[in-house]
Amino acid sequence: MSVWVYIASSLDGYIADSRGGIDWLTAYDPPQGEDYGFSEFMARIDAVVMGRKTFEQVLSFNSWPYTKPVFVLSSSLKTVPHGLSGKCRLISGSPRQVIDELSRMDFQHLYVDGGLTVQGFLESDLVDELIITRVPLLLGGGIPLFGRLSGPLRFEFMKTDAYPNGLQKTWYRRAR
Ligand SMILES: NC(=O)c1ccc[n+]([C@@H]2O[C@H](COP(=O)([O-])OP(=O)(O)OC[C@H]3O[C@@H](n4cnc5c(N)ncnc54)[C@H](OP(=O)(O)O)[C@@H]3O)[C@@H](O)[C@H]2O)c1
Asked: FRET label pair with 128: which of 2, 18, 159, 169, CA 20 to 30 Å apart?
């Protein structure tokens, strides 16, 4: 199983402002025909695992952005909205249990999304690649990408792509 994180962060390490907003990020929405490599990335994965709070943000988008099955981590949700039942389903358990369950379902390449969710997978040392798009602004506070770990995790730098609008996407691979 490979686990990838693909996420955008402010320079000071936040993925959303203190109200959970991402207007500062959507202000950088790509021009028609450019998607900053998102569709190429989606082609590499075979399922998405996201936290419930990220799922709620996605529900506010104009359209469902995923072409692969989505598993929503939640202990509080009982159902997903009508109309999305063929596209996403609920899952719970520790990151290890989630990986084991999805492996049994023959998924091999996971995209994990959401701050607390990513932090849980990192704490269990289950993330193989971090793909972080740095947005050139300081939010000064908000929802952090990273949290506490019981020990350091070393990653190898792979490459950085720079976009004309100032975004920089960097790939890191877990050095085990
Ligand atoms: N900048 C970006 O690229 C980017 C990407 C993704 C998200 N975001 C933003 O980040 C914010 C959401 O991040 P977040 O850190 O607040 O939350 P999150 O990780 O999206 O969701 C946290 C919730 O996921 C559930 N969860 C996580 N691990 C679980 C587990 N092992 N078992 C069961 N449930 C589990 C829990 O839901 P329950 O409380 O229901 O149990 C928990 O409250 C949103 O504002 C979103 O817009 C930004």
From this structure: 18
Ligand 1 centroid – CA 164 distance (Å): 30
The closest-lying atom of ligand 1 relative to the alpha carbon of residue 98 is: 31
Average pLDDT on 39-46 reads: 96
Q: Residues 35-47: what's their mean pLDDT?
A: 94
At residue 31, does pLDDT exceed 80? no
Compute CA distances 113 → 31, 33, 72, 176, whole Å. Answer: 24, 24, 10, 22
CA distance 103 to 106: 5
Pairwise CA distance, residues 71 & 107, whole Å? 11
**115-123 helix and 95-104 helix, angle to the nearest 10 degrees:** 90
Structure tokens at 164: 């004309």
What pLDDT is recorded for position 32?
Answer: 81
Q: Are 44 and 171 in contact (CB under 8 A)?
A: no
Q: Is residue 101 scored above 80 in pLDDT?
A: yes
Query: What residue ranges line ligand 1, CB within 6 angstroms?
Result: 7-8, 15-16, 20, 22, 25, 51-54, 57, 73-77, 92-95, 113-117, 120, 143
